[in-house]
Amino acid sequence: MENIQQPKRVFSGVQPSGVLTIGNYLGAIKNWKKFEADEFDSIYCVVDMHAITVRQVPAELRRRTYEILALYIACGLDPQKNTMFVQSHVPAHAELSWILNCYTMFGELSRMTQFKDKSQKNASNVNAGLFDYPVLMASDILLYQTAIVPVGSDQKQHIELARDIAMRFNQVYGDVFTIPEGYMEKNGTKIMSLQEPTKKMSKSDENENASVGILDERDAIMRKFKRAVTDSDTVVRFADGKDGINNLMTIYSCFTGKSMSEIESEFEGKGYGDFKLAVGETVADGLQPVRERFNQLMADKAYLESIMKEGAEKANYFANKTLSKVYKKVGFVPKIR
Ligand code: TRP
């Protein structure tokens, strides 16, 4: 069957498990706008079921679920052009997960670096859900016949596994799943910590000066950039070993669209102090409209709920089509109606 004209499915998800940083913004959400073009059909999920693989405070999880949806929209994604929904509103994710569990090897899951990291960080709660996290993620992706999965580079291994599971299943049962492909931004995928620029910027960093939240106030943003770690050189220049400056240049480049050499000439003869000030101001200015829109949206729960409802209806319809196919293939008796 020819399906060249059919738009390509894009799917991604964000966990409602902490404040999002400019790393999440620049490395992910901001870049999803391009998938609003006609040749794509995109779905964005708030993955609350993934979030409970580490302990969450229920009221916070609920609030953050609204927040991620509001952020999707505040970052510029049009709810009319993209489907947005909450994972737990579509039971097929859990249902397909069970099936795919039976096509995923213990050894494969044991090799996942995120599992190893998270087991270390949550040593008192290495639960089966944490181990199984990548299978739920594979289900998210495969349910929608996804072709493209825009994610940060830390998710590469999970995407690889989703592909392996899909190919394994298809090999046994014929073409059931589209084989997905990860899509990683070349620039801006990896924004590093402002305090330890060899480490990825993380929302869970203990040092609050290490990361900048999408919703941080101007003062906080300025302070964090002012304190950002640089090096003992004095020239704003992108080069090996200048991790702090490289990171600041990357952030500046993402917000302004300027190239590294343009930035180098802009700050020729100027010190790190001036440069850090400029980066701080640019980031604060760039995030201001996002923060304003976010606050408006959070004040209108009814609107957010209407998006959730509509999104879940569409997602359920599509997901159930794939799930029925899978149930039939593995030999389940169709539901007696
Ligand atoms: N694991 C992803 C992350 O932490 C979130 C996620 C869950 C996801 N399901 C997904 C991303 C499906 C892309 C597609 O970033």
Tell me what the structure shows.
With 337 residues, the protein is mostly helical. Helix content is 51%, strand content 7%. The strands form 2 sheets. The protein has a 3-stranded parallel β-sheet with strand order 1-2-3. A two-stranded parallel ribbon has the order 4-5. The protein is globular, with a radius of gyration of 21 Å. Tryptophan binds at residues 11-13, 15, 47, 50, 137, 140-141, 149, 151, 155, 158.
Low-confidence stretches: none
Query: What gyration radius follows from the Cα positions, in whole Å?
Result: 21 Å
- Quick one: overall form? globular
- The overall pLDDT, averaged over residues, is 94
Looking across the biggest beta sheet, what order are the strands in?
A: 1-2-3
Number of helices: 13
- Label the structural class: mainly alpha
Distance between the termini: 32 Å
Order of helices and strands: EHEHHEHHHHEHEHHHHH
List cofactors, ions and other ligands.
tryptophan
- Main pleated sheet: 3 strands, parallel
**DSSP helix fraction:** 40-55%
**Number of beta strands:** 5
Beta-strand percent range:
5-15%
